[in-house]
Description:
Layout: H1 3-30, E1 32-33, H2 34-57, E2 63-64, H3 67-80, H4 84-97, H5 102-114, H6 118-131, E3 161-164, E4 171-176, H7 191-195, E5 202-206, H8 209-212, H9 225-247, E6 252-258, H10 260-271, E7 278-282, E8 300-305, E9 309-314, H11 326-344, H12 348-351, H13 354-357, E10 360-365, H14 376-384, E11 388-392, H15 402-411
Parallel strand pairs: 1-2, 4-5, 4-6, 6-7, 7-10, 10-11
Antiparallel strand pairs: 3-5, 8-9
Amino acid sequence: MNLKVLLILLFGVYISCFSNNENKKNENQDKKSLAVKVEILITKEGVYNALKWFQSNKRNSDYTINENELNRLGYKLLYELKKPEAAIEIFKFNTESFPNSGNAFDSLGEAYLKNNNYQHAIKSYKKAAMLLKHKQLYHYGFLDAEPYSKTVIPSDTLKLFESRGDFNKSTAYVYLQGGPDTELHINAKDALHLMDKDSTILRVYPFQAQMLNPELLITNPVLTEEQSRMENEKSIEILHRTINYLKQRNKKVYLIGHSYGASICLEYIASRNNLADKVVIMGTDLDDNISSWSQLKPGEYIRWEKGVEPKAKKVFGWLPDDFPIKLSFDRLADNLTVLVKNNIQKQYTQSIKEEDFEKLITVYATEDEANGRKSQKEINFLYSKGVDVIEVKGDHHSMLTKDFMGYIFRNKLN
């Protein structure tokens, strides 16, 4: 076969494939959305008739099946139209159509829970938790408990943090987020992205122990004080190695922590040789008042009304009191609480070195519901040490705004 004939044959195959793809594309474009059709029928004929049509036509090849569209339809039925049983039918079909979608099973679990069908809710939520790569904290309540297993820190320092921006920059901004959470939340709303529009600044996000070892949250029995101390020490070691790595590359390092992340920063500067050039502590105190914690029942944590009055509340208060696996969620909440308590029960006004007070900036909110308003006694102490103390009007997250973080970036860290 000569080259000319071969080229003609190959061209024919290409044209045939292109034509088939175009035909399939046009065929799909001609099809109508199943979810949209049902929504139109709901408006015209009501939920009962629309659902009846859906049951007869959900396998009809004339209609396209879109996971997100079905999910939105299900939620419209569940919350806007107050039809949980109809929503369940839509969500069930979505899981049948997309059996590997954790989000589809999560929505089905929510509908079952709303309809007080607890066993089916548990089954669906557990399936979602097993499928989802990125889990919410509540998903861990549906997973089987595990015995305590120590977090192992990678020997490669580059695996201890994620970064964004230009690593050749001479200044690194290091952020420890609140939580405890099981993954980093790097997005437009994190403290470093709120600071400045310059996408080239070097942003560094160290991991925390429970991010490397999420099973800590489902440890049974609940983490002991010693176990939580060891795990917080792992988070501090990760931060120490991250900052050391940056300083070895002759970078100026500004360390920023919020809430639980700020408590890790405080323990770092109290227990290690603090290599950061400035440390911004937001949403936690050097000497936290945890006297009210002694009255906590399983599954509870403290919330401060208007930042001044401590009240015990359920971490997963949205779950019904008679939920069959409620103890699993109490255990999850208690594992979170013991991790937080291990650092904030310490008195950092006594353990931070004199030279490190000069590097410190503290930010507190007037109506901090998570941490409570900073005491005047601590404010006076910090002033006596020359610490920059900044008050923000609002709640626990009120400092995480473009205006405030931009102010910190322009006036305190440059």
